[in-house]
Amino acid sequence: MWLPLLGLLLGFAIGVLAGWEVPDAYSSYLSIAILAAFDTLIGGWRAHLQQTYDEMVFITGFFFNIVLAATLTFLGVHLGVDLYLAAVFAFGVRLFQNMAIIRRLWLAEWAKRRQNREKS
Amino acid sequence: MKRQARSRILLTIICFIFGAMLGFSYQHASKEASRRGWKDGEWSKEYEYRSALLSLQKENRSLKQQLVQKQEELAAWEKKLSKKQESEAGLAEEAKQLRMYIGKARVKGKGVAVTLSDSSYIPSEASATDYIVHEQHVWSVVHELFISGAEAVAINGQRISHRSYIVCNGPVIEVDGTPHAAPFVISAIGNPDVLASALGLPGGVVDQLVEDHVDVKVEKQEAIVLDPIFAPKP
Question: Cβ neighbours of residue B150 under 8 Å, at least 6 residues apart?
Fold first, then answer.
């Protein structure tokens, strides 16, 4: 359980301390990629809680979503249409939905525990 | 177990990638924010400087306007002053002139001298009074001279003013209380030609005087000096 968290912190530290500069032109790609990754992570968490987690789906989803979002942004930049808004919207909505599902699952678990405690 | 470990490692890798992205983004965002902040500061500074400059320019303008106004005022004052001085100078000149006219100042100029003497030939003692100079003769000469444009007239060196009087007082003629005896020299400053010809008009003053047996001599003189009138004698 601690290993992924450690990996996260390590990655963050490297990202901050490495000193690689992201050019301004690519900052939008980075932000959309982050959004996609975050969405995938939350989605994976939700799937894990719902016991529908599939490793292959998760990993392919992670990279595919990032690439897709970046591609959309790239297209949008070159077509003059703000297509990254579509990605932001889609990922944002899904993020909130997943969060809501996680919250409900937690609530259900918490209610079940309390009922059990009251019973006993 | 093996499978779980593998998935754990995969998850860790993914988390690592995500963390790295987050880190990059964070770094970028913080840099951007700091840059923007700096820019904001610069803007505010620039605005401050600009407003200070503007206010200075405004002040300058108003001061310049004030300066122009003051200069205009000064010019007006100077003009006034010069005018005043001019008028004062004119006044002084005028006062001098007027003093000359009323006999308060010594005057000098071209003119004529009219000498009236008693007739050298007196046929009889009884009619002697017909052969001497009377005050009306002096009067007529003086009047004629003034009418002809004499600027200053004196009898035997005594200036005649507008308040002078000439009276007969027996053997003498009193001018302003000062007795004068014949011959009377009436000096007048003015244009000598005009005065002389005015006196010598046919049927004029000289003719009448000659008719009254008065010896008349009219001389044009280049320089006559007349003393001012002194305070009337008590």
Answer: B111, B188, B189, B190, B195
For chain B, where are the E strands, in sequence order? Answer: 107-117, 152-155, 158-159, 166-169, 172-175, 178-180, 184-189, 215-226
B40 token code pair: 């904001």
Q: Quick one: what percent of chain B has pLDDT higher than 90?
A: 14
Among B3, B6, B15, B36, most A C-beta atoms within 10 A, so best to mutate, is: B15
For chain A, what are the domain ranges?
Answer: 26-119
- All structural domains of chain B: 106-226 (3.30.70.1880)
Q: Does B36 touch chain A (CB under 8 A)?
A: no
Q: Are strands B184-189 and B215-226 parallel, antiparallel or unpaired?
A: unpaired
Interface test with A, best of B2, B7, B8, B11 (most A CBs within 10 A): B11
The ipTM of this complex is: 0.78
On the question of a cis peptide bond just before residue B183, with omega within 30 degrees of 0, the verdict is yes
Global pTM value = 0.43
Q: What tens digit of pLDDT does each residue of A40-93 get?
A: 888 888 888 888 888 888 889 888 988 988 888 888 888 888 888 888 888 899
Angle between helices A55-79 and B2-102 (to 10 degrees): 30
- What is the predicted pLDDT for the residue at B36? 65
